[in-house]
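Input record, target 12 of the design panel.
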């Protein structure tokens, strides 16, 4: 029987808690956050839940909550990642997060390398496993990318493609944390190109795709995201020697953010306006509504009506099989907003990211991780990928793969 600590009871953490509440191999779920009201509301709907207040800026506070647990699931903002990693090592337990922390090094890519090398060594020394980047993207999409490798002998190029097509009638540009969304929108994207990590221009280098289930041509652009970094660093061992790996993004959030980025309004550098020091990013953020997370709020948005309720998550991998050049295209299908609300009273963003993360937690609970040290979600074995996908299907998250020979 496993005891789990979930740090951060927002959309991701609360979904994982509810999923684990159904797992027979879980004895206790400690739900911890600085927001005591949020903790209380979550624990109130769990059979195995216990609430605690934790100050994530204080490692000792995290350690106190983590004593005796088998796994820490970190659903906190990225700046607390280093503290949680250190606490997990101190109490000698396993670790999981939804996106790699930015608090290890001022250069995020260098921070990832440190996590693989130094933290990987430290977790291995205590015989424990840390799995990072386990949401939907990164996370689920990484499992899909690993699956495409089963169809190839060698790989040249991988495109990770995401379209956020759910749009409400009210002003609601983001269905997840606005500060995270805007930071990513204004961040410098990384790509793995010709075997090297490079930086690209936000919203640059567009590609165009048409998917029959969306019904229109979509313009996808460069975006600051994890996949090219993780997969690029792991290309030789896990992605059949891929030389080019990209993340391409589209949707209502991109449509909203691109012009304000072009206008300089996502800058975090103070500037003087009419004698006042102003940070443009903070001004924009002040006017963005928070992502909906409560049942009544989501119900109200749906009843007001939606502009669109669609989306796409696709991995395209181009390489060779039996001497022939082929493209392997894997589409991820999952419930949309209306269906997610009917099923669980949550948004489709909460459903996909939370359920995607919960499946990695389930793998911990069922002892499916044979690795020790630190890995990211793109480093699963093929057996682990197959198990993950099998479990996902039970949540109506399915993968459809098409192989095409290229001339």
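The sequence produced for target 12 reads:
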């Amino acid at each position: 029987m496993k005891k789990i600590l979930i740090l951060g009871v927002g959309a991701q953490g609360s979904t994982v808690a509810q999923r684990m509440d159904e797992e027979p191999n879980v004895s206790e779920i400690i739900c911890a956050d600085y927001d005591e009201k949020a903790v209380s509301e979550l624990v109130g709907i769990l059979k195995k839940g216990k609430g605690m207040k934790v100050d994530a800026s204080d490692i000792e506070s995290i350690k106190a909550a983590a004593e005796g647990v088998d796994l820490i699931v970190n659903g906190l903002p990225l700046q607390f990642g280093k503290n949680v990693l250190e606490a997990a090592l101190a109490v000698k337990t396993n670790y999981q997060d939804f996106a790699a922390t930015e608090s290890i090094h001022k250069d995020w890519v260098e921070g990832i390398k440190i996590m693989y090398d130094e933290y990987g060594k430290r977790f291995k020394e205590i015989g424990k496993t840390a799995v990072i980047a386990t949401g939907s993207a990164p996370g689920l999409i990484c499992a899909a990318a690993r699956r495409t490798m089963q169809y190839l002998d060698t790989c040249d190029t991988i495109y990770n493609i995401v379209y956020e097509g759910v749009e409400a009638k009210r002003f609601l540009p983001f269905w997840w944390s606005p500060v995270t969304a805007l930071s990513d929108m204004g961040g410098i994207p990384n790509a793995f190109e010709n075997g090297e990590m490079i930086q690209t221009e936000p919203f640059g280098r567009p590609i165009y795709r048409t998917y029959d289930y969306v019904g229109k041509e979509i313009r996808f652009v460069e975006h600051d995201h994890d996949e090219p970094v993780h997969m690029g660093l792991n290309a030789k061992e896990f992605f059949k020697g891929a030389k080019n790996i990209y993340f391409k993004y589209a949707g209502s959030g991109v449509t909203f953010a691109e012009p304000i980025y072009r206008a300089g309004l996502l800058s975090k550098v103070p500037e003087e306006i009419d004698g006042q020091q102003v940070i443009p990013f903070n001004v924009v953020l002040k006017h963005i509504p928070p992502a909906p997370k409560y049942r009544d709020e989501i119900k109200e948005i749906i009843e007001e009506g939606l502009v669109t309720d669609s989306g796409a998550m696709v991995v395209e991998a181009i390489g060779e099989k039996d001497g022939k050049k082929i493209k392997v295209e894997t589409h991820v299908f999952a419930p949309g907003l209306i269906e997610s609300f009917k099923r669980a009273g949550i948004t489709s963003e909460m459903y996909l990211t939370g359920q995607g993360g919960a499946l990695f937690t389930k793998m911990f609970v069922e002892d499916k991780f044979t690795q020790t040290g630190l890995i990211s979600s793109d480093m699963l074995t093929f057996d682990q990928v197959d198990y993950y996908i099998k479990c996902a299907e039970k949540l109506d998250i399915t993968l459809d793969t098409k192989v095409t020979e290229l001339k």
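The chain has two domains: 2-97, 140-405.
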